[in-house]
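Problem 12. The chain below contains 661 residues. Write out its predicted structure in token notation.
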Amino acid sequence: MTTETSTRDLRRPAAMTVRHDASWLSGDDLFLFNEGNHFRLFDKLGAHPRIVEGVAGTNFAVWAPAAEYVNVMGEFNGWNKTSHPLRPRGQSGIWEGFIPGLGQGMPYKYHVVARHGRYWVDKADPFAFRTQTPPQTASIVWSLDHDWGDRDWMATRAARNSLAAPISIYEVHLGSWRRVPEDGDRPLSYRELAVELAEYVNQTGFTHVEFLPVMEHPFYGSWGYQVTGNFAPTSRYGSPQDFMYLIDYLHQHGIGVIRDWVPSHFPTDEHGLIFFDGTHLYEHADEKKGIHRDWNTAVFNYSRHEVRSFLISAALFWLDKYHVDGLRVDAVASMLYLDYSRKEGEWIPNEFGGRENLEAISFLRQLNVEVYRSHPDVQTFAEESTSWPMVSRPTYLGGLGFGMKWDMGWMHDTLHYFAREPVHRKYHHNELTFRALYAFTENFTLPLSHDEVVYGKGSLLGKMPGDEWQKFANLRLLLGYMFAVPGKKLLFMGGEFGQWNEWSHEASLDWHLLQYPGHAGIQKWVADLNRFYRTETALHEHECVPTGFDWINANDSDQSVLSFLRRGRSAGSDCLVVVNLTPEPRYNYCLGVPTGGFWTEVLNSDARHYGGSGHGNMGGVEAAPIRSHGRQATLNLTLPPLGIVFFKPAVAPESECGLDG
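Solution.
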């Protein structure tokens, strides 16, 4: 709190019970931190149980360079604000001390008094590994011991996370995926989620799960995007070891884990980072740089060396200590532009007069360099909603260094198109074909994320036009189209079975819908799409290079039909995709294909067991030796209404290949 009352008495601590002769931080630690190049601060700052000269206790260290006085208070001393002061470490701004007899499980805070004497406040530890469950705000002394059992996963995850691998992500909000109605409608714990989520993800075929932010956050309605505990998983669902168990269990069942991470802003709750030592320590002092008006949050000061060390340490922490396989970096666009969501006169140009945030750009490049230097087998994903160039290109080429970028343009154009009545779609054909012009300028992930099913936008199923049958057919078509076009896949929970309602973080998904054939059919369709995507190399090997995609006919707007080939590395791996975006079946629809012989219909969204009408090609079609669309053979197809169909050329028997004489 801020006050004019004198704090003189607070600066006269009681009898010393803190040891200051057993420092945990070396001179190199202090130097690298102040220089902005210490990226494992979680090993040094915060609360660390240790033994000094045979005496067990906890070492505390916190950065508060403008403080006059810093005291550790907690249950161990009756929340006394003066009895356990820390001592400054030279000019580093770090305060440190060892408290004997204090161990794991003890709640604590720092009482910080500013030098100017008009401000004192009780702060949670920015480096705490565990926190009290909100609305309580204290930190808890905790260690991160865990007996990991995911050795096999860690040894193979480089291949599983590569750009040539199938990556199909199931985006999950932990508190609302599934609840326990017979126990007060409480969310599942981390350990309960481990078993149920692993079984479900394997059933539906996704390769990875992505968790909305699990770092501690005071306001549940922020979904975790307003973080106060950058090094602590939220205690709402269990302990740090419980969250480790969840990740470990998913890994042991062949499922990767991506975490949403938020280095763009932080909340203004008094116990958090804001005005930490009586100065704008972590945030910009000028509101034109330091406040996000949209979210009423503070913006990190990326020009400050110690803040960069803090943030990069926060990223590496989850990779080092929790075995996370990727980081999805939230709101990158808000970091890149000084005028993001600001009117004229509300922002400050950079030193060259431009709108680019040079300090944030430098930070993002440094972040990605350090992540891939330490963990070359993970991926970073940028949620970047503008046309900023080379987001997923190496820093040495001038890029930002991310592994992948969310294709927000694809998402917006595709959802706008699918929301149109089919009779109007032929006039907007280019909303789907336009993406081919830029599809390989970045390593893209195609997101149908949580942001598209909240705030009155409706569910994916609710966005679809037409009667109920057409809505379900359109959703199957949309999901099939996402799996067919180049780009890694991401689908928010509930979309895989066609939830009618918008997502609510206060309630479970509507699992009861699976008793109805339409919803169960969508779930079966997604599971089959995932399995086909994982097994067919043509669909995943070349998603980030143009050799993996070839139009057959992009211009049939009159009939609202798209047709293209997906291609893998090996000969004969071609996959033909044909999309009919109207409710009218198309008979005798002729398409050129690169080879003759029999083309097997391997997936059809209109199959009856998905809830469709059963239109199709009776298992496949023999290609006629007639040139068409610049290719040597022709298929005469039946295109199902509001349907997508996948074909593969049949493999000739071994005898015909001359392998058995």
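Discussion. The CA atoms of residues 181 and 328 lie 31 Å apart. Students who got a different answer should revisit the alignment rule from Section 12.3.
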